[in-house]
Amino acid sequence: MILCLGVAADPTFTAGLRALRRAGIAFRPVDLLSLAMRGSIRISLECPAETVVSLDGESHRAGDYAAVWCRLVAVASAAPTDELAAASAGQTEALARILEFVPGKVMNPPLREASGFTKLLHSVALGEVGGWRIPETCLTSDPQEARDFVRGCRAGAIFKGASATKTWATVFEPHHEARLPRLVHLPVLFQERIVGPDVRVHVVGGRSFGEQIDSPVLDYRTVRGTNDYRPSVPPPEITEGCARLTAHCGVPLLGVDFKIDRATGEWFFLEANSMPCFEGYDERAGGAISRAIVEWLVTP
After folding, report:
1. Which residues pair with 256 in a beta bridge?
2. How confident is the model over 279-291, as pLDDT tens digits?
């Protein structure tokens, strides 16, 4: 039996539930929004297996489940009242902590891979584990330092936010230079521009599933209907590095992003997401990613 913790409005969570249902695997879903409004969590500090999640008359004891699949999406900011916001935030924090200690397998322990809270540390640290180069990068709140860095990038530069908050990559253009004085209020991450396709590699345990994306825009996530998606078999140094990365991070599921320099063929590591939205990639892969997730959850 699999315990599934997530938000019913999250398409990635529901895609995972459908994959379990297709495979005929017994599971119990818990919607975190409903839990905040009508449920409770009782945590046993002496025995994490005795932790109980209760909702709508049903109680789920952690020790009764062989594995947990969790997508702890933070929803407190959307709560209609302060009371519900506090309940949601507290429950999410409690679940994130106790899932480090419950028996059985967990995909993915929410607190296990924390380097993503700052993108530069994240890319440098994880790129070294994988054995990959990262684009030349400058994280700064100094306008002149940013100006010098951008001017030194032969193929141009891009910029994006530096925190764990979702951000869009943008090409640095001449009119952006007038805005550089604003950096004194908030640092920004600048990188050399790598001209070429993106590759997303989903890693499930030691298995890798690659897809190459050619897009007419810098950030392919910002457009629909114009990107060219095709399966990609990454070279051994990429798949081997991805396997090392999941082992190093202590999480079985990662969405690892790369850029390929079209002129040289070299792969550059961008980041690795420990809570990837995999459903679109999975559909194009004929369900291979979700099947691997199910297999990981049910394999002793």
Report:
1. 201, 272
2. 999 999 999 999 9
